[in-house]
Write a structure and sequence with these properties.
The protein is α/β, with parallel strands linked by helices. The protein has seven helices and twelve strands. It has helices at residues 19-29, 62-67, 75-80, 103-111, 126-132, 187-210, 231-238; strands spanning 40-41, 48-59, 87-92, 116-119, 122-123, 136-138, 140-141, 150-155, 159-161, 164-166, 171-175, 178-182. Strands 1, 2, 3, 4, 6, 8, 11 and 12 form an eight-stranded mixed beta sheet that branches. α1 packs across α6 (187-210) and α4 packs parallel to α5 (126-132).
Amino acid sequence: MGIRRRRHQVPAIEAALSTQALVDGLWVMGWPAAQIDGARPLAPGMKCVGRAVTLNFVPARPDIAQDKPAGGESPEYEAFEKCGPNEVLVMSSTGPWESVGGDIKFLRLKQLSIGGLVTDGSVRDTDEIINYGFPCFSYSTTARQGPAAMQPWECNGIVSLSGTVVRPGDAIIGDQDGVVCVPAKVAEMVYSIAHGREEIEEIVKEELIKNPGPPGKYYPFMSGKVKVDSPLGQLLATKGITPENSNQFEGTADW
């Protein structure tokens, strides 16, 4: 009997919500680190947000190459066809310098208007990929041929990128600071915490610009532990943020 995977609803996480805030939200909840270390934007300004479609590569071996479905039935093309504007293709490489693909293969991702591509490996044909216009996050770029070192083996299994686990359907968010995987099961709560934190940080920054001084009076703070009578709590009250409408205060944590 196969494993039955539960699907969890992922909220519409806005691309404007920073990866830092999402990492902080997961940290507050006690979840493992979620940043995919080494996945960097291929060009400045790239951002992505969407559900994960995963593809796992394994080291090249003659019998694996023979047993893998050929041509258009290959797991990588199976993964491609599951992608669209709301999906991010997450490709687990066997090494940071191995190529997961380039110009001709990734033309199909452009045609599908993919939401983004993330890998802990490298990509080739960099100029062409940038011109395709979809967000791409990789460890680096390379001129190497991928098939000489690894083969695509499984579509939509659980993968690990630089030690961070990604399941199909997880929320993948990328910006100039890197890429974060938010587990689908807790995505709605993480979004709530992260959004609340960003609101508070904007208020603190605004106050420090208006009244310059050390940020230690208000910052850093722990979500779910802000005291009402603290300087930060009092500042938030002037902006209408209270325990009645925020889960950032002591005794309001709902996670």
